[in-house]
Amino acid sequence: MNMKTLQTGPTISVAHLAKSFGQAQAVHDVSFDVQRGEIFGLLGPNGAGKTTTIRMILDIFKPDRGDISILGGPITDAKKEQIGYLPEERGLYKDLKVEECVLYLAELKGLPRRVARERAMAYFKQLDLIEHRNKKVNDLSKGMQQKVQVITTLIHQPAVVIIDEPFSGLDPVNTRLIQEMLMQERQRGTTIIMSTHQMYQVEEMCDRIVLINKGDSVLYGGVDEIRRRYADNAVRVTVRGELPHIDGVVETERKGNERTLHLPKDMPAQAVLRRLADAPDSTVESFELAIPTLDDIFVRVVSEE
Amino acid sequence: MSKSFIVMRHEFMTMITKPSFWVGLIVVPLIMAATMGISLLGSAAATAATIANKQNQTVLQGYIDRSGIIKTVPTGSNLLRFPDEAAALAALNAGRISGYFIVAADYIASGKVTYVSPEFTPINSPTGNFDRVLKLNLVGGNATELARAETAVTVQKEQALAPEQSKGGSGLPFPFLPMFAGIMFMIVMVTSSSYLMHTVSTEKETRVMEVLMSSVTPAQLLAGKVMGLGLVGFIQMALWLISSLSALSYIPAAASLGGVSAGSIVVAVIYFIFGYFTYASLMAGLGAMMPGTREAAQYTFFVILPLMIPMYMVTALVLEPNGPLAVILSLIPFTSPVVMVMRITATDVPLYQVLLGAVLLALTSAGVVRLVARLFRAQMLLGGSKPRLKDIAAALRA
Q: Is the Cβ–Cβ distance between A168 and A131 less than 8 Å?
């Protein structure tokens, strides 16, 4: 019976997690839930405690404090076979042939060798690795190795995928390819935790995020909701011709042809749009609410901390 | 399928599909055979030279004639007659004679003469003068006696004073089988356990370890690796043993070496298994602690040193396999896998020593496995730097 059909609450629930190594406190108090079928961003600066949190979820490390529930309860050996893990520091057997390496790691995830071989061949075809399957891993380019690593993460069709910097080392074409694979996994109902520093990828792919800083979860919620929460009352406009004077604008920033107009809290953006539309010497080419990027929010939160 | 079994099969298959494994399997025994051959020739030449030198020194030799055929001893033969072996032995111990012959009571029928000397001189027996004296006494007109006189001295068994040195009686100038067995054990255990360490530190270095840790527990990983590479070592040793015994059976001088008893093989297997577990675990622990292969290799020598110690004393051990040094080293768990195998192929080892050595080795093996299991944990396996002593101590206490 598939565990994905049994489990009803959050796929992963982490509550008040803490872990120290000697005197060093790697994780102090981290909490978040990950719902089934969502792509969840696990963000934070280097050394914030993301990898330690992931290792505790995977049962590689035991937490000093706190609770972890995965697929409806504590982790078991059987549940480990329902998890695919792509660590940040890639690990493959350099001296093994590509196919042999994939099959071994798939078998350790409980996949029978015959099934593993069939699925591996399908992935090799999809990712353009079919001609390289009998080469040693060491003979592949970094990007190809990265694709092999993605195969080992997904080949057993896990219910949960935890991926750390999945796009590092990939060119734009392969980045798009892996992105599409992850989206397909999500459509299949797979729960994905993605840790990355590429905030535009988070904005594009993630439903919700948690930001960890110095071992604590400091920001948690839906991507859009968080961006709105951190948004000032401002609009970004691009106009052809002279930008007319608009009463009430507090500050104007210019970046190329784009201008960001900061407004008083009680001033609606429509007032700016109306004024621009009425101006005889200018044409509005673009107009949008100036919602901060996750990158801006990340820097702001971490700096404030 | 158990995770440990998958790891075991992977390690086994990876190892036996390496060309270097097959090269080692074939080349190592060839090198050893060549080395032994050269030693054999050199040793034979040296022994013959020593004997010739001693014969030139014209020392007295004794004899005990139980057959009663020696009536005449020409002057200048440098032979002293003794009424019994006790008197001859006393003279030998007193240094009055260099050795003595015992002419069997049924000498005419059997032709049996035993030579006793303090030194083991297997290639050439110092029969020179005595051979001539015997022939002289045998010739008496009787055709049978004359025929016997033509082959007057056929030493059936040469017996040195230390009785254990006579085991085998192969005619080889040096007991090579024990040495060969000891070296073989050492090589197999060192290579298997070193490769185990290599796989662990490579998995750390290449960061595969983190992927593995998400699928298997450290204990499952350790068990699979130890079993897989142990199986490789066992097969390697079995192949070497079978091929070397087969090869030796074609050498007339070494024909008796083929008669290694089933009991000796059982003892060897038991010592190999526990010895391998001990050293494989130690090496796995070393691999777990060190951040990479280079750092681990720096400490390898210290771990395998006890296995190599017997090699520095190999002559003393195989020539005196029941001597105090051999007995002690065959009971110390870190040297016993090699030394006990040398002893059982060289002589009859008292059963209590075999059992005591095996029990001590088994207990040590169990203790080492337990300690290493404490080191073989995720935090150590995923660490990227050399651990401090207090980290190791803390892990061992945990």
A: no
